[in-house]
């Protein structure tokens, strides 16, 4: 026995036609009723502890913006790369030890303040410059006493 529905169709099961439960999605192939949200098209998001779907970066919710770039305490972006004075300190330590020593000290202060790379170069320039200066003073003192 079939039941006649108000929309002009018949229900072969014989059960009276009831409105769908608001919490349930509509049956397959039928659009959602007016005012209802359609179900998510690709299923549920992964549960806690499960890896995200392919192409989704880990640790970010769906549709989230990427994190902002890091800035230093004064609002300037941290400088990247190697400090130029650190390079100059190492080079000058072989040709003009006093200039290499001064450039190395200034470079270390800049590196500490800005976070740039080149700390090892500045230290090497200071050490080589200091050793060259001490060696030069020693040679002058040793040759000056023999005259």
Keywords:
147 residues; mainly alpha; 38% helix
Structure, explained:
This protein has 147 residues and is mainly alpha-helical. The chain has a domain at 84-144. 38% of the residues lie in helices and 3% in strands. The chain contains three helices and two strands. It has helices at 84-95, 97-114, 119-144, and strands at residues 3-4, 10-11. It has a two-stranded antiparallel ribbon with strand order 1-2. The chain is rod-shaped. The N and C termini lie far apart (132 Å). The relative contact order is 0.09.
Which radius of gyration do the C-alpha atoms yield?
A: 38 Å
Provide mean pLDDT, rounded: 75
Helix- and strand-based class? mainly alpha
Euclidean distance between termini CA atoms: 132 Å
Give the topology string: H per helix, E per strand: EEHHH
Shape: rod-shaped
**Biggest beta sheet summary:** 2 strands, antiparallel
What level of helicity do the residues show?
25-40%
Contiguous uncertain segments of 5+ residues:
none
| Strand composition percent | under 5%
- Number of E strands: 2
Number of contiguous helices: 3
Short overview:
With 147 residues, the protein is mainly α. Helices cover 38% and strands 3% of the residues. The chain has a two-stranded antiparallel ribbon with strand order 1-2.
List the helices and strands and how they pair.
Layout: E1 3-4, E2 10-11, H1 84-95, H2 97-114, H3 119-144
Antiparallel strand pairs: 1-2
Helix pairs in contact: 1-2, 1-3, 2-3
């Amino acid at each position: 026995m079939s039941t006649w529905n108000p929309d002009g169709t018949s229900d072969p099961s014989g059960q009276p036609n009831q409105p769908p439960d608001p919490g349930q999605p509509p049956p397959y192939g039928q659009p959602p009723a007016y005012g209802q949200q359609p179900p998510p098209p690709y299923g549920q998001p992964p549960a806690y502890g499960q890896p995200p779907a392919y192409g989704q970066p880990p640790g970010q919710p769906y549709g989230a913006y990427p994190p902002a770039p890091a800035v230093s305490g004064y609002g300037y972006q941290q400088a990247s790369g190697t400090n130029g004075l650190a390079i100059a300190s190492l080079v000058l330590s072989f040709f003009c030890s006093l200039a290499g020593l001064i450039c190395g000290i200034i470079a270390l202060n800049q590196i500490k303040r800005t976070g740039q790379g080149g700390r090892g170069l500045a230290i090497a320039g200071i050490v080589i410059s200091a050793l060259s200066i001490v060696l030069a003073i020693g040679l002058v003192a040793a040759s000056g006493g023999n005259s």
